[in-house]
Amino acid sequence: MKILIIGGTGFVGRHLQTELSNEHELIIFHRGEKVTDVRHQSILGDRKELAVHRDHFARIQPDVVIDF
To answer: 31-36: which pairs have CB atoms within 8 A and are 24 or more residues apart?
Structure first.
């Protein structure tokens, strides 16, 4: 399953990434202030400007979106 995680680099998000990463493809949308697991696709941006990334999200076609 392809999962888009918005803002998933904090305390809870890091643990969720670990739990999901063995069985799912993860795409992490974040500001770039914290390191993400290099096995996952990373999209840099600000949640205040999600509309700017709309086309990118549409190309990815995630099955699930988790928003922190």
So the answer is: 33/9, 34/9, 34/10, 35/9, 36/8, 36/9
Cα dihedral 10, 38, 51, 23 in deg (nearest 10)? -80
CATH of domain 2-67: 3.40.50.720
Domain boundaries, the chain: 2-67
Report yes or no: 61 and 5 within 8 Å, Cβ to Cβ.
no
Per-residue pLDDT tens digits for 1-57: 999 999 878 888 888 988 998 899 999 999 887 766 667 788 999 989 999 999 999
Q: Where are the alpha helices (DSSP H) in 1-68?
A: 11-21, 54-60
| Contact criterion met (CB below 8 Å) for 48 and 34 | no
Instruction: Report pTM.
Output: 0.85
